[in-house]
Structure formats: C-alpha cells, structure tokens
Amino acid sequence: MAMVEPEELVLGFDVAASPERLEQWWTDLPEVYEAEDPREQPHRIERLATTEDGAVYETEWRGPMGLTFTLEETLHDEGPGRWRFVVPGPGFEIVDRYEVTATETGAHLEIRSTISYDHLPGKLAQRVMIPNWKQMFTEVFSDAVAVFEEHRAGEAASPTRAST
User: Fold this and answer.
1) How far apart are CA 82 and CA 99, in angstroms?
2) Max Cα separation, the chain?
3) Which end of the chain is less packed: N or C, by CB atoms within 10 Å?
4) How does pLDDT run across 132-159, given as a tens digit for each residue?
5) What is the 3-state secondary structure (H, E, C) of the chain?
6) 158 within 8 A of 151, measured Cβ to Cβ
7) Which residue ranges make up each domain of the chain?
8) What topology does CATH give the domain 4-21+37-153?
C-alpha cells in the first residue's frame, strides 16, 4: 500500500544559552525523569536501553481529558549540535530532527518534525491527527524551550535537567 505524503512542521527558537548547554539539556537525560512543571511534555521519561548512537526511551504524555499515553522514542546523536528522536506508531512514524547553532546572543534551535503515514491505520490516524498535530507540536516545543530557559535561569540550584 502506498504511503501517504508526509507532513512537516519547521520551528525555530533563539535561546540565550550556549549551543552545547541547550543540546545537553535536550539529550542528556537521566535513567528516569519526572517533570515537575505541568507544561513539560513528555511528563515522564524512562531509559529502556542505550544504543550505539543514543538511547531508547519510554515516554508518557498528557492527553486530552486527563488521559495519558505511552510511546517508545529512540534518540539518535547525529554529531555536535544535531540529534533526532524517532517515534514509531501504529501506521505512522514521527521524526523530530534538531539542529542547534551558535548566534551572537546564544543559540538558534531549529526543529523539523515530520509525520509519515502508512497502511490503513495510518491513513485513518491522518484524518484525526493532521488538523491537530502541528498546533500541538508547536505548543509542546515552545513550552519545552520556555522550561529550558526557566531551568537555566535557576542553574545554581539545578544545573541540568539530568540532575533534577
């Protein structure tokens, strides 16, 4: 069965932090992480395995009406300032690619999120997900950057997300 044309969302954020610090916060996760900030998604992360170029995580996300759902995500390190998370689902796959570069005032983070659909479950999911996923992902990534900046502002008490 032919694959449905992938959908892409591209976001950019300017952050007053070094590219290295921003990448570390996003990728240097502890064995288990539970968010204290209700805006943070996923709100729970558990490392399932370490791979040659990253790690596999089980993540819990807050959904509508108080529901939570669990996904398996694989982090791939693609060299300094570049990484991606791959999230397979029933009939779809989400790939979030990150690239951070230095600027005069800190760093610029570009996130390219692509969702691809395959087979009947994916085509059905596309009808439900596409109208909402771009808005949802824009909010999730914007909130993540805001949480990073707030954590960075309080670095003396909490130097990295990995240690919180």
Assistant:
1) 5
2) 54
3) N
4) 777 777 787 778 888 877 776 655 333 3
5) CCCEEEEEEEEEEEECCCHHHHHHHHHCCCCEEECCCCCCCCCEEEEEEEECCEEEEEEEEECHHHCEEEEEEEEEECCCCEEEEEEEECCEEEEEEEEEEEECCEEEEEEEEEEEECHHHHHHHHHHHHHHHHHHHHHHHHHHHHHHHHHHHCCCCCCCHHHC
6) yes
7) 4-21+37-153
8) Alpha-D-Glucose-1,6-Bisphosphate; Chain A, domain 4 (3.30.530)
Residue 145 to residue 109: CA distance in whole angstroms = 9
Pairing status of strand 44-51 against strand 68-77: unpaired
Output the pTM of the full model: 0.79
Residue range 63-92, pLDDT digits in tens: 778 888 898 999 999 999 999 999 987 778
